[in-house]
Predict the structure.
Amino acid sequence: MFSQSVLANEVIKLATTTSTENSGLLGALLPKFEAESGYSVQVIATGTGKALKLASQGDVDVVMTHAPEAEAKFVADGYGIEPRGIMENDFIVLGPKNDPAAVKSSKDATEAFSKIAHKPSKFVSRGDNSGTHMKELAIWKDASVTPDFNGYTSVGQGMGKTLLMANEFQAYTLADRGTYIAYKTKLDLNISFEGGAELANPYQIMLINPTKYPDLNHKGARALSDWFISPATQTLINNYKVQGEQLFKATYKK
Amino acid sequence: MSDGWLALLQQAFSLLLSFDPHVWAIINISFSVSFAALLITIFPSIMLGFILAFSHFRGRWVVLNLVQTLQSIPTVVIGLLVYLLLTRNGALGDLKWLFTQKGMILGQMLICAPVLIALSQAAFASVDRRAWETSRTLGASWLRAVWTLCRELRGPLLLAIIAAFSRILTEVGCSMMVGGNIMNVTRNIPTAIALETSKGDFAQAIALGLVLLILAIVLNFILGSLRGKALPRSH
């Protein structure tokens, strides 16, 4: 049918996080890119940790994740180049409606977490090295809490399943707003705490260093990265809504 | 960074041989949950197998066919059923068993019971009925006579038990759904392998996979030697 080389050049493998995939954003955006550019994008949706691992092993052409520290290391180690911040959404602390640890009145996420730990209340952690899990660990660290208190439950599951488990246990958990909105009708949980710089969740797209892996589809990867920062796409991101709520804020600055 | 196969295997073996507490906690959970499920299920299942082989109540064929069908039901379907029973607004929600070892045991019991019933029924059906009648006429109680039969059939029955055990020890669908993969509580070998693979940490996944592989080899050897003995004696 096709010769291998032509086919290989037309496919772009994008490693990204489950949150972009679950929220339906990529499903809404990528077909437009494919129609405009002629490339076809294969999305490998996994946790941030594994997405970066795939990228550093040269298993994918381009990577889009949301864990600033891990991304900085990925670039510093010489695997990633030209990181571009394209959008952000935010994390929220969810919890039972009666708010047993009284986190509602906290001034920031760190205080909310330390209240949960000192109560101690039930807290369900994703525990899967995802961007959300890394963010959670960073907040525990800022709160000088070792997350091994009674009631801390590490489940090693994706965001959706973790929300369902937190709901069963009537526990607190940290979630990205997108997945929460998608699951809202199934949950008996409230937003216990939101807002503040700590809970910002910025997404970056990064190219993979051609000197490490010369045979990847670098041309396609660059085309995708350029398309994400174009004003038209940035507007598309801002206009993407789930159940009437805007999920992502476009953030690319020249 | 690109992990060579040999390096990974080396890490895996060192995790096992250095008795890494995390890895061994997972192995321990796997075995204790599956043993509990098996022990609770063995006796009633073998009794049922016996009844299905020896009595002739109406609808026996329906039950037998149902049990044989259930042997091959996907474990995720059992997982779904148990999940719906145990969820907060489910029929057994008050037990609070979802995402606990008890819930996992319940799921695994449902998975291994059909295997035990069907295979023990086949074993009992293969036996010469005269052995049963002889022991009954010699005045042995009903239970005692069943026990005699079981001793007679220990090969095929052990085969049934091992087949059931290996099915629940290696299933991932139900454990993941009902247990929830909670660290140090309900994280067993198959769910841990699924998690470590999704994280991209292959060393621990391989270490746990090796445990299952070694176990499978050992069980298969036992099965093979039992099959050799269990074959009907030639004329």
Q: What stands out?
A: The longest helix of chain A spans residues 25-37. Chain A has eleven helices and twelve strands. Residues 1-8 of chain A have pLDDT under 50 and may be disordered. The radius of gyration of chain A is 19 Å.
